[in-house]
Amino acid sequence: MNKEPLNTRDREGATVADKAKILIVDDHQVILEGIKHILRNRPEFEVAGEAYNGSQAIELIDSLRPDIVVMDIKMPQLNGLEATLQIKQSYPDIRIVIFSMFCDTSVISLFRAGISGYVLKDEPLSDLLIALDVVKTGGTYLSRAAQAVLQTGMREMGREEKSSFERLSPREREVFTLLADGMSVKETAAKLCISPKTVESHKYNIMEKLHASSLADLTKKAIEKGLIKM
User: Fold this and answer.
1) DSSP 70-84
2) Measured between alpha carbons, how far is 17 from 28 in angstroms, rounded to an integer?
3) What one-character-per-residue DSSP string does 178-206 give?
4) Residue-range domain boundaries for the chain
């Protein structure tokens, strides 16, 4: 008996390989049903499962291995932000689209965590479909409200970072530039005619003031400030 190839097209024309498996996570049944309803006529998407909170979603992830997770934020037991952080840490390739009633500064944390989309529930459900289409092909979709919050947050972070940089002493700026440019602690000490221990002390203070966790972070910040060039 002949077996059908894995990429055989189904009745609606989408191939099995083309389908994106979706896990829907929301504590309101009416939302779950609404999303499933709009996806019924979209053969390129397959609803692989549903969960009512972040904890259930994490339990299902390993067995379902969805391509996309549609995630609410405010849920019992484990909220969407915490669930997103855990999922992206263990499964960075899973794309997450936030579908929420709220749009606040948590957008920034979610964006940093690696979400692929953010859609508000008071927008047409067709916007969620657009987001899923964009995310399925590797893109990012943010509603206008989410974009506004993210842009405002980025500007504020930029001002804070500028203020932090201005708090560096002249010597700390010298050490910052040399370390970020690839010099070792010993080389920097020799260049500035100070001890390696003093360089280490300056390095610690610089990282504290600039909220940097590594020399790589310092290098990135130096490039952004135009202090060094790649």
Assistant:
1) EE-SS-SSS-HHHHH
2) 31
3) HHHTT--HHHHHHHHTS-HHHHHHHHHHH
4) 20-151, 167-224
Please report the sign of the dihedral spanned by the C-alpha atoms of residue 149, residue 213, residue 166, residue 173. negative
Q: Give tens-digit pLDDT for 17-75.
A: 579 999 999 999 999 999 999 999 999 999 999 999 999 999 999 899 999 999 999 99
Within 10 A of 38 (CB to CB), how many other CB atoms are there?
A: 14
- Cα(135)–Cα(216) distance, integer angstroms: 30
Whole-angstrom distance, CA of residue 123 vs CA of residue 128 = 8
Q: Is 163 helix (H, G, I), strand (E, B) or coil?
A: helix
| Spatial separation of the C-alpha atoms in residues 48 and 51, rounded to whole Å | 11
pTM: 0.62
- CATH 3.40.47.10 matches 20-151: no
Cβ-proximal residues to 185 (8 Å cutoff; 6+ apart), any chain:
179, 196, 199, 200, 203
- We find that the CATH architecture of domain 167-224 is Orthogonal Bundle (1.10)
The residue with tokens 């006529």 is: 41
With a cut of 70, list the residues of the chain below it in pLDDT: 1-17, 153-164, 221-222, 224-230
Q: Which of 91, 48, 96 is nearest to 71 (CA)?
A: 96
Short-list 22, 126, 109, 112, CA closest to 73: 109
What beta strand segments (E) does the chain contain? 20-25, 45-51, 68-71, 95-100, 117-120, 141-142
Token pair listed for 32: 């779950």
pLDDT value of position 229: 52
Q: Residue 43's beta-bridge partner residues?
A: none
